[in-house]
Design goal:
Length: about 425
């Protein structure tokens, strides 16, 4: 291989991504690239699990540090009983949608959010705990009350106990009732990025996809597909607008449900470029449902993930698939390109809940701004990496400085394991 053919280094890719983002900010491109996201909403209790107490003072305890230790404590109670104390560190706004949209807004993208962030009385007023989130967004439209999650945090991951019943109010009919079809069309027409997340918990989300396909996407300027073809004038796929989809851990949904969802996304991709974001477990599940032999033996994990993204994308019929294990991320798109980026993994995150949502926000943010695939992966990993270290979504300045000084795996032990989650 000649010097000219050498693959760019991880550091040069990250630095080039930082340069591109700063240019997009300086020339006004970022301010003219609005996003529309939805549709869930949760209140997240961030919890530590008590192992042993020194006294009854609130903070005088040693937590159970790993998921395996927690599992052992529960298993030991079989046939008996046990009492496990939970200490709530914080109650914060959550849900895949608000975390994703909040990250976009924090980066400077004008973001509209529609979702389950309202009061329990059924009104269209914002629940006060979401006010900090709303301040990051250009506009927030509540259509239902939030659901609830107890997020048990451990050094090696998190366990989330969800109570998602309120999510079942999030339907196409509710969306049209609260927003209005013409207003929804106008918001979608303005948006360059449509972020639609949490299919797993929202039973009505697939109906929202269907509603968009039937009533909204065909009428958007520049969108091609079936409607244009019927008129005898096939138009190209809309490459200026992208949809980002996060299924949000479909482990509990049936194979038939997942297969049906993927088919709807294939239909959506006829009108607008669809990117499907998956963590490693989701990637394995989707590959199995599609009958794709992915994650086979490879020379490295990066090669395996990159190749899996390419195979899943081709079988699913989507514009792009990105898969993000904790160690980095791999993606493939319909141009034939694929890439892997090693993330800034840390075994000691200050906060891991929301790491995957921040990866998705960073990746789709870079993607819609036109960054190459490898740079978009770098941005996704950096947004997530900065978030888990800081326990707050990065702004554009923090993101670009993080990209330019991108740490390696487990570098800087005092800096706040995840990078892409």
């Amino acid at each position: 291989m000649t010097e000219r053919q050498q693959i760019p280094s991880r550091e040069s890719i990250a630095s080039a991504a930082a340069d591109a983002l700063e240019r997009a900010h300086a020339d006004g491109t970022l301010a003219e690239t609005p996003a529309l996201a939805g549709f869930d909403g949760f209140l997240d209790s961030i919890i530590r699990v008590v192992d042993r107490r020194g006294s009854m003072a609130l903070e005088d305890f040693a937590p159970i540090s790993t998921i395996s230790d927690f599992a052992g404590r529960i298993a030991a109670a079989a046939g008996k009983s046990t009492n496990i104390e939970l200490v709530v560190d914080e109650i914060r706004f959550g849900g895949n949608g608000p975390l994703y949209a909040g990250a976009l807004g924090r980066l400077g993208m004008p973001t509209t959010y529609v979702g389950a962030v309202g009061r329990d009385d059924g009104s269209s007023e914002l629940l006060p705990i979401f006010e900090a989130f709303a301040a990051r967004c250009e506009r927030v439209i509540p259509i239902a009350a939030p659901a609830y999650t107890d997020a048990l945090e451990f050094a090696d991951g998190k366990i989330m106990f969800g109570r998602p019943v309120n999510m079942q109010a999030v339907t196409w009919e509710r969306l049209v009732e609260r927003v209005g079809l013409e207003e929804l069309r106008a918001m979608c027409a303005r948006a360059r990025l449509l972020g639609i997340v949490d299919w797993t918990h929202c039973g009505g989300l697939q109906g929202i996809w269907e509603g968009l396909i039937e009533h909204v996407l065909p009428g958007l300027e520049g969108v091609g597909g079936e409607v244009s073809s019927r008129a005898g004038k096939p138009a190209p796929l809309d490459v200026k607008r992208r949809v980002f989809i996060d299924l949000s851990d479909p482990a509990k949904r049936t194979d038939a449900d997942l297969r049906s969802a993927l088919e709807v996304l294939r239909r959506m991709n006829r009108f607008v470029s669809v990117t499907l974001g998956l963590n490693l477990a989701e990637g394995e599940r989707v590959a199995a449902v599609l009958g794709v032999e992915a994650f086979a033996d490879a020379a490295s994990q990066g090669e395996g993930v990159r190749a899996a993204a390419a195979r899943v994308r081709a079988r699913a019929g989507l514009s792009c698939v990105v898969i993000h294990p904790r160690e980095g991320a791999g993606a493939a798109d319909d141009s034939g390109q694929s890439a892997w980026f090693e993330g800034p993994f840390t075994a000691q995150p200050r906060l891991s809940t929301g790491a995957g949502d921040h990866f998705g926000a960073g990746f789709s943010f870079a993607q819609v701004l036109g960054l190459p695939l490898g740079q978009a992966l770098a941005v996704g990993c950096a947004v997530s990496g900065a978030y888990v270290r800081d326990a707050v979504s990065p702004d554009l300045s923090r993101l670009t400085s993080f990209l330019r000084g991108l740490p390696g795996a487990d570098e800087a032990a005092d800096a706040p394991g995840t990078s892409g989650g």
